[in-house]
Amino acid sequence: MGLVETKLAIIPGAGGTQRLPRVIGASLAKELIFAARIVDGKEACRLGLVNHSVEQNDTGDAAYLHALELAREINPQGPIAVKMAKLAINQGIEYLYGCVVLKVIPTKDRLEGLAAFKEKRRPNFKGE
């Protein structure tokens, strides 16, 4: 993967010049963009461009299987809380934190999560 537009005498589009520095820092982003460097999965993981890099398996679905593991880890969590956390992360914590907290507090899922924690059992979230 890489932002190689400088090879064409243009700059990365779709916010690449803004997003990449936020993820890996301005200095490293400049190096990768200016040099039009392409990195493999292991290097992308080391730089923090991706969360995981997996070796391909014989059936060609290693990335899919890893993603499925992650989905199974996320799935039992409170759906409204996950949705609001995603919104807060994507839109900026400072701006939205108060808004998303106000949407999570009155939910039945929040009460169920607290009760399950207190009772030392797995929660049964319903997205309500």
Automatic annotation (TrEMBL):
<dbReference type="GO" id="GO:0004300">
    <property type="term" value="F:enoyl-CoA hydratase activity"/>
</dbReference>
<dbReference type="Pfam" id="PF00378">
    <property type="entry name" value="ECH_1"/>
</dbReference>
<dbReference type="GO" id="GO:0006635">
    <property type="term" value="P:fatty acid beta-oxidation"/>
</dbReference>
<dbReference type="InterPro" id="IPR001753">
    <property type="entry name" value="Enoyl-CoA_hydra/iso"/>
</dbReference>
<keyword id="KW-0456">Lyase</keyword>
<dbReference type="GO" id="GO:0005739">
    <property type="term" value="C:mitochondrion"/>
</dbReference>
<dbReference type="InterPro" id="IPR029045">
    <property type="entry name" value="ClpP/crotonase-like_dom_sf"/>
</dbReference>
<protein>
    <submittedName>
        <fullName>AU RNA binding protein/enoyl-CoA hydratase</fullName>
    </submittedName>
</protein>
<dbReference type="InterPro" id="IPR014748">
    <property type="entry name" value="Enoyl-CoA_hydra_C"/>
</dbReference>
